[in-house]
Structures are given as C-alpha cells and as structure tokens.
Amino acid sequence: MITLLPRVGFINGEEFASGVNMRTCIYVAGILGLAIAVTQTGIGGAVGNALLQVMPLDKDNPFTSFLALTGITSALNFIMTANGVPALYTTFAQSFADATGFPLLSVIMIQVLGYSTPLLPYQASPIVVAMGLGKVPARAGMQLCLALAAVSYLILLPLDYAWYQLLGKL
To answer: Which residues are listed as membrane-spanning (predicted)?
Structure first.
C-alpha cells in the first residue's frame, strides 16, 4: 500500500489519481482485514485443527505427508488468502512436525509452495491490484492462476520433495 502513495512509490500523483482504482485499494484492505479477523476470532484455529484431524499425516509415508502439508496451505489460502496463511499455518507447525516426523524447519518451509500458488486471483492481493491497474479481465487472471498452479503442482512440488529428500530434511 505504501508504494501506491504519491511521491513515495512507483507512481506519481497524476498516475495515482488517474490509474489507481480506489475499489482495488479498498479490496486489498478488506483482504488484509479478513486475514486478521480469521486469525483473531478463532475461525482459523478451528479450521487448522479440523485439517489436522482429516489430513493423512503419517511418519511412515513422507510423500503423502508432504502432499498433505502443501494441501493444507492451499486450503487455508481459500479462507485467509496468501497474506494470512503463514501466520495461521506457522502456529500449527509443531503439531504438523509431530504428526509427520519432519523437522520443524522443514514443516515451516513446506508451506511456501502452497501459499505462493494462488488458485484464484483473490488469494493474492498483488495480483488483484495488477489486474486492476492493467485492466485485465477476471477470467484471464483466473486462467493464469490455474495454469501456474498446474505447473507448480505437477513440476515444482515433486522437485521440492526431491530436494528435501536430497538434503535429508524429511
């Protein structure tokens, strides 16, 4: 938000007045507020505990646990957006580490693939801001997110798992 301010960020006062849609700024503020509300009301904690109960976290099957942890962050992305997922997920990291047998640091790092891969544009407010500034239709933004998610999950997820295995961190 600070980079959108006149004389502070990447655009000057004229560009801000003519190019920045205030609805987009309000949307970003709403998304950030939602992340705080979900965390502070306990909704996020309830969802995290429910996910912990139903996800197949198993010390004997590290690949399934790796997929489950990535899936948890992807699922949290739908209720919190990428801005709030790390704050909530990290509070459960020790429980996830105990359930999977993974080192705590590995559990914390696994979340990045899930929250950095939005399936829908609203899950990452910078995408929404960029779409607003570039007048990109919602459909095009959604297609891009889904294409990037497919590449991330089909190529990057197995590579991440192999890298963790190579380092001996799972």
So the answer is: 26-51, 63-82, 102-122, 143-164
Give CA–CA dist 18/104, Å, rounded. Answer: 47
> Higher confidence at residue 65 or residue 53?
65
φ, ψ dihedrals at 12, nearest 5°? -90, 180
Q: What's the CA gap between 132 and 152, in Å, rounded? A: 25
The model's pTM is 0.73
SS3 label, residue 44: helix
Banded pLDDT at 119 (limits 50, 70, 90): very high
Confidence check: pLDDT of 16 > 70: no
Q: Where are the domains of the chain?
A: 2-167
Start-end of H helices in 11-137: 13-19, 22-41, 43-54, 62-91, 93-100, 104-115, 125-134
Task: List phi, psi (to 5°) of 76.
Answer: -65, -30
